[in-house]
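Final report, closing paragraph on structural work. Over the funding period we assembled a curated collection of sequence-structure pairs, and we close with a single example.
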Amino acid sequence: MTYLTTVWKYRHFWMSLVRMDLRTRYRRSLLGVGWSLLQPLAMTCILFVVFQQIFKARASEYVPHLLTGLVCWNFILTCTIQGCQCFFQGEAYIRQCPLPLAIYPLRTAIGALFHLVMGLAVVICLCAILRGLPAPAALLSMVPSLLLIFLFGWSLAVLAGSANVFFQDTQHLTEVGLSIAFYLTPVIYRVDDIIHEHRLGWLLQWNPALAFMTLIRQPLLHDTAPTSGDYLYALAIASVLAVAATAALSRLQKKLIFYL
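Its predicted structure, as stored:
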């Protein structure tokens, strides 16, 4: 708690870093933030045309499912890949000021969360057009869901950044691993169909990303809040990663500067 209090104490610093990243990314851009939404929308259109006949799904069900999965997956991808460079990106600040190291992966996670929220806003609008606006109570249940997925992403950024400091091929290996993991995660397909049709489909239920996608998809696609079991499972995964991230930061805090 003392460490988190210190991080909060420097909130104006890391919030300014996030604003700087967003301004730099969209400077002199015609669409601005719209570019971050164009990629999942374009991929949704392409994948819908390709896989609709395979999965025999209606557009009103499959398009929101697909777009929600892509938006969540992009959040995880951003936190992990960009998290690999978070300490190198903040090297100048690390050398000058003894600030908590969690600030630098936090910078990455907040930027990814911003794009996640923007993407989910588009999903809500799309659901309202295709299926009708979800119930307000179901939408409110997304607040704790976003907090959990944010903790998950922040922990991923810490672990990826810590590993990349000592072994700088981590980012390249992570990119390959996540390319494979994309097809092992129910982004394109629905997990219920795989479980019923394939013997090893039950292994998908152990995919950590599925727990957080379920929290987001449940209110948007099924108009109900996630169950307490869904929340507890996601909380357990996020807590385990948070503990691992805390252990990594405790080892790096004093000697990271020697590896940059």
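The chain has a mean pLDDT of 85. The chain has one domain: 54-258. We thank the funder for supporting this effort.
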